[in-house]
């Protein structure tokens, strides 16, 4: 059970990172649960920081 949950949260973080790199708004978060939403936003913030530093991955 823990492995499934961790994989879901890791996937949420990765999807948030992809959204941030592509310039999407944080308001577009598709997750409703607090855990997944938190991980998605964490990935989004990381990507926005990377974009500002010029580390865009294309």
Automatic annotation (TrEMBL):
Superkingdom per UniProt: Bacteria
Transmembrane segments: none
Task performed by this protein: During stationary phase, converts 70S ribosomes to an inactive dimeric form (100S ribosomes).
Cytoplasm recorded as keyword: yes
Keywords carried by this UniProt record: Cytoplasm, Translation regulation
Organism, as annotated: Alteromonas ponticola
Cytoplasm found in the keyword field: yes
Listed HAMAP family: RMF (MF_00919)
Family per similarity comment: Belongs to the ribosome modulation factor family.
Protein name per the record: Ribosome modulation factor
Localisation: Cytoplasm
InterPro entries registered for this protein in UniProt: Ribosome_modulation_factor, RMF_sf
């Amino acid at each position: 059970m823990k492995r499934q949950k961790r994989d879901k949260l890791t996937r949420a973080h990765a999807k948030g990172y992809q959204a941030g790199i592509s310039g999407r708004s944080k308001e577009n978060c598709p997750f409703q649960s607090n855990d997944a939403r938190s991980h998605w936003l964490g990935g989004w913030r990381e990507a926005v920081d990377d974009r500002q530093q010029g580390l865009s991955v294309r």
